[in-house]
Amino acid sequence: MEEEGINATSFQLGQTKVDVSSSSEFPNSSSNFETSDTKRSAWSTCVTIVDLVNHILIVCLTAFTLYYSVAHSVFNHTTLCTVGYVLLMSEAIVVFAGDNILTRYFTHRTKKHLHWILQLLGLICIIAGVVLMYRVKKVHFKSNHAILGITSLIIMIFLTVTGYPVFVATKLRKVIRPITIKFGHNFLGLSCFAIGMASQCLGYWKFRTMNISSKVDARLICIIVSVMIVVLSARKALPTLFQQFVKLFG
């Protein structure tokens, strides 16, 4: 009987130790969860700030270029191409970024429609800008600025005309893999955007009088901001393109 009492007592003590040790783990687990949530919140805040900065850069560069164009009577070509590339094309790419503060609560279907609408409006502006410059000049598509611009425009027209298969990629799986259609569309889209913005940068450099003051060359500022817009706008599209490349050729 005494041995049984001793065994029971030791069992209770052992159980108590187990309970105490197990209960002591819960505070650590909760603290780990809190740390993880804090990190996620901090990361989400940083991404939101980056996205907000990108939108501000897009609006500011567009507004400054429009102001300069109107002030120097070069409204037509410069204004239309700036609106087409800097504003509409940039926002069309950023639409699909999950951290986009303007479209984060939209459905994927809504984002797709908004994407092609912005792209189509950008295409219209750019075509109008190119046509107006074509009518003014006698020599066409000789400079690097013009060559890059017309190259980007051709790709953009092709993307717009052939964009419908992207919407029905899953229905065409018996003919072609959906990942192939999406990869091709994304690759050409990013290439078109990068080439067009490169042409935009060369366009800024052509305006030698584009200065805020005698000590500040606004051309260089506009080029730097343009590069930042390209990088920030493609922050989601580039990783997606890489993942599609791996799935397609990996």
TrEMBL record:
Keywords: Electron transport, Heme, Iron, Membrane, Metal-binding, Transmembrane, Transmembrane helix, Transport. It is a multi-pass membrane protein. It comes from Bombus impatiens. Residues 49-241 form the Cytochrome b561 domain. This is ascorbate ferrireductase (transmembrane). GO terms for cellular component: membrane. It comes from the Eukaryota. GO terms for molecular function: metal ion binding; transmembrane ascorbate ferrireductase activity; transmembrane monodehydroascorbate reductase activity.
